[in-house]
């Protein structure tokens, strides 16, 4: 029996139709929900998580749009995604940075217990958190095949989405 993982990155209200929402993000919700619901392995979710002092952080100074503040509606997973996460009893990692060090460590532990056959990523934003998590996980699990579902990701812009996919391809992440 295969030991496959799907990591659904930051499918949160603020990235879909909130403070940083885009039509491209809105367009992938249904596909992400279906894929996560039907995935024949372990599904894991992340949430971008900031505090009230976000605008005083380095990220906030570079991206001065308050978003994904813990406990707000914008921080929550979009309802259809939250429903799948709850239905699966899936782990949800709150991450204060683009890449989740906690998630990477957790995957290393899972791999030590039982070798992971593959890791797949989908979600938002391709050019920030998806690529950051892909490269972080690839660094700690270099022999685990990794892929990203391009049709189930959206970037800040279509051009930055394509640039992130090219970067991941260069780093031996298969782009489907």
Overview of the molecule:
With 176 residues, the protein is α/β, with parallel strands linked by helices. It has one domain (4-175): Isochorismatase-like (Rossmann fold), CATH 3.40.50.850. It is 43% helix and 20% strand. The protein has helices at 13-16, 23-38, 58-62, 79-88, 101-113, 126-140, 158-170; strands spanning 4-9, 42-48, 92-95, 118-124, 146-154, 174-175. The protein has a six-stranded parallel β-sheet. The longest helix is centred in the N-terminal third of the chain and has 16 residues, at 23-38. The radius of gyration is 15 Å and the shape is globular. The two termini are 23 Å apart.
- Helical proportion? 40-55%
- What would you call the structural class? alpha/beta
The run of helices and strands is EHHEHHEHEHEHE
- The domain tally reads 1
Instruction: Give average pLDDT, whole number.
Output: 97
Shape: globular
According to CATH, what is the topology?
Rossmann fold
By DSSP (H or I, 4+ residues per run), the number of helices equals: 7
* CATH level 1 class label: Alpha Beta
The strand line-up of the biggest sheet is: 3-2-1-4-5-6
The CATH homologous superfamily is called Isochorismatase-like
The residue ranges in which pLDDT falls below 50 over 5 or more consecutive positions are none
Concise description?
The chain is α/β, with parallel strands linked by helices. The chain has a single domain (4-175), classed as 3-Layer(aba) Sandwich (Rossmann fold).
């Amino acid at each position: 029996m295969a030991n496959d993982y799907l990591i659904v990155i930051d499918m949160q209200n603020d990235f879909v139709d909130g403070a940083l929402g885009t039509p491209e993000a809105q367009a992938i919700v249904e596909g992400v929900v279906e894929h996560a619901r039907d995935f024949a392995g372990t599904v894991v979710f992340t949430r971008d998580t900031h505090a009230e002092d976000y605008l005083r952080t380095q990220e906030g100074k570079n991206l001065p749009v308050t978003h994904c503040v813990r406990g707000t509606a914008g921080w929550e997973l979009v309802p259809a995604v939250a429903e799948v996460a709850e239905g699966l009893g899936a782990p949800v990692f709150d991450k204060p940075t683009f890449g989740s060090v906690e998630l990477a460590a957790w995957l290393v532990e899972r791999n030590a217990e039982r070798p992971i056959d593959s890791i797949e990523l989908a979600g938002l934003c391709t050019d920030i958190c998806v690529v950051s998590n892909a490269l972080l996980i690839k660094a700690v699990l270099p022999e685990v095949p990794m892929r990203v579902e391009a049709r189930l990701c959206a970037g800040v812009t279509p051009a930055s989405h394509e640039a992130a996919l090219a970067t991941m391809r260069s780093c031996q992440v298969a782009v489907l």
